[in-house]
Amino acid sequence: MDADAKKTILRMIPYGLYVLTADDGKGAMGAATVNWVTQTSFNPPLIAVGVKADSGAYAALKSAGGFVLNMLGKEQKGLAFAFFKPAKIEDGAISGQGFTRGSNLAPILDAAIGAVECTVRAVVEQGDHHIVVGEVTGAHLRQAPQGRPDAAILEMKDLGDNVFYGG
Amino acid sequence: MDADAKKTILRMIPYGLYVLTADDGKGAMGAATVNWVTQTSFNPPLIAVGVKADSGAYAALKSAGGFVLNMLGKEQKGLAFAFFKPAKIEDGAISGQGFTRGSNLAPILDAAIGAVECTVRAVVEQGDHHIVVGEVTGAHLRQAPQGRPDAAILEMKDLGDNVFYGG
């Protein structure tokens, strides 16, 4: 296989940016910027997320059996970069961001334009990131988009001409 | 759960457009436009695709154990719409498109800007679409993009202001 061709072709897949959070209520908490996300079913509503297998967010969601996917708005580059680093809850904020909790305890960022609560239905433990399949069990729309919803989200290409996660 | 909020939030996920093809060499052949695609691992390179469970493409890829994901270019709306309909191979063309075959027999469209050959590594049989996990085993770059690769692909929002597949 031509590795350069593989990289270029896989980078054709467009991505939004999200902060995935999870908390098992027993000390395992994680929050991380992710981009490998797709819906996979209408009924029930399922999404699949590729989550780094050695990350705190992955450990937390496995233990919790659920997670929240926070959608970042077009102008929220700072949030995307903030959650590239390991997250901590301090003074009632997570990495400096105010939040509430979903019914599965996962943090819902006050600043997110929307968030879905998910229950883990399957995990495919293959590769350096594992595939977490979540059923959407709650939805929190913070800012109704003016136009298409997919025009309101922060995208990978908005982070810089040479910023990619994939390939 | 607020169904309208759920729909709007899930529609924030940006999507490219692809033609997924498969052929088991024993009469089961399928080709269908799909958009629920994400990479899920770098090493090995894995992608996940949500494929309608009652479709010919799904039956063909399950039988074949592999598939090709053809990337559509920014101007190839016609191709996306062509493969919304059941595909047939006639006169050496599939739905009127010239093609070659990957090493797994799946059609690689001459018109695609790129294509990856995949071997099926897992299937999550949940929901109205099932999650097909493919390891990328071959890559065919037909047109090297001038700028970012994710600026070269046809996106869902390019199909029309009110065209969505998700929510």
Give your account of this protein's structure.
2 copies of one chain form a homodimer. Chain A is 16% helix and 40% strand. Chain A has helices at residues 3-10, 56-64, 77-82, 149-152, and strands spanning 18-23, 29-34, 37-41, 46-52, 66-71, 89-90, 93-94, 97-101, 107-109, 114-124, 129-141. The first copy, chain A, is globular and about 45 Å long. The mean pLDDT of chain A is 97.
Q: Quick summary of this structure?
A:
2 copies of one chain form a homodimer. Chain A has 167 residues and is an alpha+beta fold.
Percent of residues of chain A in beta strands? 35-45%
Question: How would you describe the oligomerization state of the chains in this entry?
Answer: homodimer
Q: Compute the gyration radius of chain A: what is it? A: 15 Å
User: Uncertain spans of chain A, ≥5 residues at pLDDT below 50?
Assistant: none
Q: Helical stretch count of chain A?
A: 4
Q: How do the strands of the widest beta sheet of chain A line up side by side?
A: 2-1-5-10-11-4-3
Q: What shape does the CA trace of chain A take? A: globular
Largest interface: A-B, 63 and 64 residues
Number of strands of chain A: 11
Mean pLDDT of chain A: 97
Helix fraction of chain A? 10-25%
How far apart, in Å, are the first and last alpha carbons of chain A?
13 Å
Please state the structural category of chain A. alpha+beta
What is the H/E order of chain A?
Answer: HEEEEHEHEEEEEEH
